[in-house]
Amino acid sequence: MERAKSAILYCTDRIARKDQKNLNKLAKGYGRNGDSFFLFDFHGVNHLGDKHGHKVHTFDFEKFKDFGIPVFGGNVVEGNGILIAFLTFFKEYPNYDYYWFFEDDVRFSGRWSDFFSVFDDYDADYISTGIRPYAEAPGWAWWSLKHPQKSIPLKERFKSLNPIYRLSRKAMQFLMTELATGWKGHSEILLPTLIYHNPNLSLMDMGDNAPFTPEKLKNTIYKTVYGPKLGTAGNACFGSTFHHRPPILFWGLKRNYLYHPIKPLSYYIVYRLK
After folding, report:
1. Rounded-to-integer distance, Cα 72 and Cα 95, Å
2. If DSSP codes are grouped into helix, strand and coil, which group holds residue 54?
3. Pick from 51, 57, 60: which is nearest to 16 by CA?
4. C-alpha dihedral over 116, 120, 125, 129, to 10 degrees?
5. Of 3, 12, 77, 156, which has the highest C-beta tally within 10 A?
6. Which residues of the chain have a pLDDT value below 50?
């Protein structure tokens, strides 16, 4: 079976040799039906110029107010900025079957070709990690969701963890239209909640033991272990491979698992000294 035509986006505020190598691996892993791009912050640093072998789609947070979707948060990370950046890409490249998004601190302790092969069998419109309802993560910080005319009760909202995810073309088209009506919230509530409540779209979790994980993928791909205050800062526990924080310095002990966030030693030391 031929793999679906997909865009592979590596989101970063720098382009260096390490990032080039990471995107090379992703592109090689997906194969000939994948086109690789740096989703690059205009205010970042490109150390390689145009000598990295990939296309570049540049976004500028300061210009998002002109895109037609309400901006939530004061920077790219803490709000819906990354999602808007992703949608600016879709506006320019609307003809892929799927759109894969990767933050630059995601790693896989196996071959990316094996990772992508797992999801060839699933046509869900949104595939991500950590998809959970409010009842399972009330301590999460980003449950706010506002719209000038519509409302979704708190108990019917969902969160996700989005250092890596896949959207279908149909989901991208829906988000472009629906977000323009006035929804404001963090991207990690907007995506799972709005897609869940659209009867024409589907979502799934790519692993762990989450509510939306297919039975075949239970306890595979990644492991998130939190303390009692699920989703709040700094409370991932021993054995977790994929979480918001703390940063991970050593990774790869579990084969064929996703790891996040992989940070350099300098970042790790600063985090531990806080």
Report:
1. 27
2. coil
3. 51
4. -40
5. 12
6. 230-234
